[in-house]
Amino acid sequence: MNGGGTSRHIGRIIIRAIVTLLMVAILNFILFRVIPGDPAKLLLGGARTSVTAEQIEAQRQNWGLDRPLFPDQLVDYLSATVRGDLGYSFKFRGRHVADLILEHLPATIILVGIAQLTAIVIGVMLGIYAGWRRGGTLDNLATGTSLLLYSTPSFWVAMILVVIFSTSLGWLPGYGAYSPGGTISFVDSLLDHLRHLALPVTAVALGLIGQYVVVARAAMSDVVTEDYMVTARAKGLTNGQMLMRHAFRNAMLPVVTLIALNLGYVVAGAITVEAVFAWPGIGGLTVEALNARDYPILQGIFLLLGASIVVANLVADLAYGLLDPRVRQ
Amino acid sequence: MNKWPLSRRAVAKAMLLASAAPLVMNLEALAGSSCADGIVRIAGIAAPDTMNPFATWSSSWPMYFTYDALVGVDAQRHDDRRGFAKSWSVAKDNLTWTFKIWPSMKWSDGQPATARDAAFTYNYLRGSIGKPDELNVGYNNTGGLENIESIAALDDETLQIVTKSRTRWPVDNYTLMVPEHIWKDVSYAEARSTFQNKPPLVGTGPMIVSEFQPGQFASLTPNKYFRAGRPATAGMTYRFFNSADPIAQGLKSGDLDYGMSLTAAQWEELSNDPAIAVGESRIEQRNYLAFNTLSGKGAGSTKALQDPAFRDAIGYAIDQKTIVDRAFRGHADPGVGLAMPVTADYYSELSEIRRHFDLAEAGRRLDAAGYRDTNGDGLREDRDGNPFQLELITGTTSGVLEIPTAAIQLIAGWLEQIGIPVTVTQLDSGALAARTAAPADGGGGWDLLVSAGWLGPSAHDLLSLGNSKLIGTSNTSYWKNDKFDKLLSEADVTVDLKKSRELVDQASRLIYIEAPYIMLCYPFLLEAHRKDCFQGWGTNDAVSMWGYFPFDRLKPAPTP
Question: Cβ(B459)–Cβ(B491) under 8 Å?
């Protein structure tokens, strides 16, 4: 592909991404307002005295919910979004949505990021090896376990982990990101955080490992039967050379796609797992915002999620080109 | 050479290392489970959003620990749990109230806390009435202040409230007293929305919120200026959860000292733990079955719902005792009228008009009212000849007001037995609020509702279910009755408790007979605390639901 072609190709991808994000933004606006529920009424949901219609109306006016949806609220939202302003939260009483997302994002990236890396290393290695040694003991064991993990809801795995390791054995904390209160040193604080991370990371990683093993094994199973592998063996290459020089790279194509797509979902976190562990990440914020019908937060989170998936797809396209010369042509 | 297969020795080493990990991790106890630091760790199903009492309803806990109400519910129920005022009285005209503030009281920042601060709090609210930014959206709100003639500090220790008409509002309001020197420069526009009131807060309560992480926890430190002396504990951590599971786990593991909003199953399991004491609090919650009494826009699927005789007959098909025993495992009082047992001043057994569970009697009454099964298919028809097929909607209105599925199944089963089939629609809190909104706001269109509410113990709040001004909010059945409204208006301007009781009783009987609601039960709040770190908890109801008891008087337990 010549330089001009490459530029045009990248330009097309970027334009497609911008249009996609615009569609996501509009869809977000409509989608969350279709869900029945009045944020103004929910803001007064905890009231311990009778709430009047006037109080609900006051809340509506307070947060601009009394204005027409189309065009007023939609135009305001789109123009603010284009300027990079995600607006103000209802539930958190006027705090910037961007600030709230930035506060919760690190916890999710740490949790899902570590789980992803763990799962990629373990899952891909196991899957590749199981595919390479099809029918062996490890293959049967890894495939069976992976299918089980892949098909088990991660929140259920999370609950089981809590029951065993937190409630029964008392080895690890079952909720939160760290122990509040008290003044402890940086090292103790880090250790405390790692101990809180252990169970949620395991819960997320177990499901992902299953996914990676299944995909990597299937890809490797296809590769080992290819003609070029027979040729490689005929040329006298060792098992290790055949695996690393020929099989591995080819088998990685579908795995890279899966990794890239999964990395896109890092931002979304693992909502159900975060809920089980009361993890202070984006997942927890999403649940809170959904319960309060906090449209600005929901719009902000889903816009971020859309952007991360678009970027992840872009990375997958580029990685494909690096791994497979045929794509570059 | 192939290096891939793992050697048995390597696998054995890895397994050994893995098995040692928990031991290494458990070298010191969980950071949160130690008694040594003297910090009380509590948890509840809650989602506080801001520490600004003028902007939110969601943060009463932990704000209760920091701010005092002038009198408050607790002070009226318990002599030893006073608030900002040490004592109070009302003049013979029943309009002029005098409150004596604790002498030499201080805010947590050391500034004097006087009657002037109380006057400021109320007048700050009053000053906003009628303005675009009226303070009518939060816990501290203008409700009731329209009936106030004047509020003034006569001196540092004397607050006088003069009302326009007779009302118990001066002692029944729950407004939290805030310091003038902090709030005087906060505009109404900020106070009702964006002012975060960032910790450390300044209050007169025993524990001051010093750190607040929305969705996670609030840390509180002892108030060294607390009027009864600095609390004996080193502080508190209040953790917020969306469900009771981590609360039960935390109590078992020793990570929490106190937890509430437990389920019956969790509570019973915890009761078997020798290190834990369980308790149950009677609260102002009432779970009820409501009929959609609307005609016209928003009406239900049959006109029978508008007929008191039909609703009364259904009342005979509801067995409150079975609901308590089977759906709540005994952790509730059976439903009777609008007032619940915890509001001892107003509760009545309504003995002479009370319905009893009798499906045959329900059937007879339906027959008598003209709702018979004319074609022998087992289903009754309404007066228009249409077979009944009622939609029952339900859902969780908030974390602590969960409706057990078993209760819904029981009700649907009983109605089925008297020839009235029911389809159940489960909704989330937002959707439930949308469907029970006023018809003008798109609400209605359902037939039966099983829901719950938890308001205050005042006469006004007890009668809210029938208040025509609250249709679409508290009054979910859309029921309107002029006589009821008149009784409510009278109760609103009655100071004398005996007279107030009579009015509430009359209104309760009227709505019971008309039956827009069938009270199912008054659930208990289930709670538990560990015995190893602290002592001084309450007996059966370990913790007040309207104040900071016992966190002002907890002490570290003696080490064994």
Answer: yes
- Taking only residues 24 to 83 of chain A, the set having a beta carbon closer than 8 angstroms to any beta carbon of chain B reads 35-38, 41-56, 58-59, 62-63
Nearest Cα neighbor of A116 from A274, A270, A271 is: A270
Place of tokens 């701010």: B67
Q: Is the pLDDT of residue A271 over 90?
A: no
Same domain (yes/no): A302, A185: yes
pLDDT, one tens digit per residue, over A128-163 is 889 888 888 888 898 899 899 888 888 899 999 998
Residues 162-181, chain B, touching A (beta carbon < 8 A): 174
Q: Nearest chain A Cα to B22, which residue? A: A171
d(CA B205, CA B316): 48
Does some domain include residue A171? yes
Range of the domain at A28: 2-98
**In this structure, is residue A170 part of a structural domain?**
yes
CB atoms under 10 Å from CB of A329, counted, come to 7
Residues A43 and A123 in one domain: no
Distance from the B33 Cα atom to the nearest Cα atom in chain A, whole angstroms: 10
Taking only the tens place, the pLDDT of each residue in B453-492 is 999 999 999 999 999 999 999 999 999 999 999 999 999 9
- Would you say B429 and B398 are in contact if contact means Cβ atoms under 8 Å apart? yes
Facing residues of B259 across strands? B43, B528
Instruction: Report yes or no on A91 lying in a domain.
Output: yes
Determine, for residues A48 and B174 on separate chains, whether the beta-carbon distance falls below 8 Å. Answer: yes
Cα A174 to Cα A159: distance, rounded to the nearest angstrom: 9
**H or E element in which residue A213 lies:** helix A186-224
Residues A83, A140 within the same domain: no
Q: 3-class DSSP state for residue B101?
A: strand
* Cβ atoms of residues B105 and B112 within 8 Å: yes
Strands (E) located in B142-246:
148-155, 158-163, 207-213, 217-222, 235-241
Binned at pLDDT 50, 70 and 90, residue B235 comes out as very high
Is residue B8 helix, strand or coil?
Answer: helix
Indicate whether A132 and A254 sit together in one domain.
yes
Task: Report the residue of B2, B27, B30 to disrupt the A interface, i.e. the one with the largest count of A CBs within 10 Å.
Answer: B30
**Cβ(B302)–Cβ(B237) under 8 Å?**
no
Segment B289-323, tens digit of pLDDT: 999 999 999 999 999 999 999 999 999 999 999 99
What pLDDT does A327 receive? 62
Residue A63 resides in a domain: yes
User: Are A184 and A312 members of one domain?
Assistant: yes
Closest approach of B338 to chain A, Cα-based (Å): 14
Question: Which of A83, A98, A113 marks a domain boundary?
Answer: A98
Q: What's the number of domains chain A is made of?
A: 2
Chain A: closest CA distance from residue B174 (Å)? 9
Backbone angles phi, psi at B9, to 5 degrees: -65, -40
* Minimal-distance CA residue of chain A relative to B468: A52
The helix/strand/coil state of B302 is: coil
Residues recorded for chain B: 560
Predicted confidence (pLDDT) at residue B31 exceeds the cutoff of 50: no
What's the pLDDT band for A182 if we cut at 50, 70, 90? low
B254 to chain A, any CB pair closer than 8 A? The answer is yes
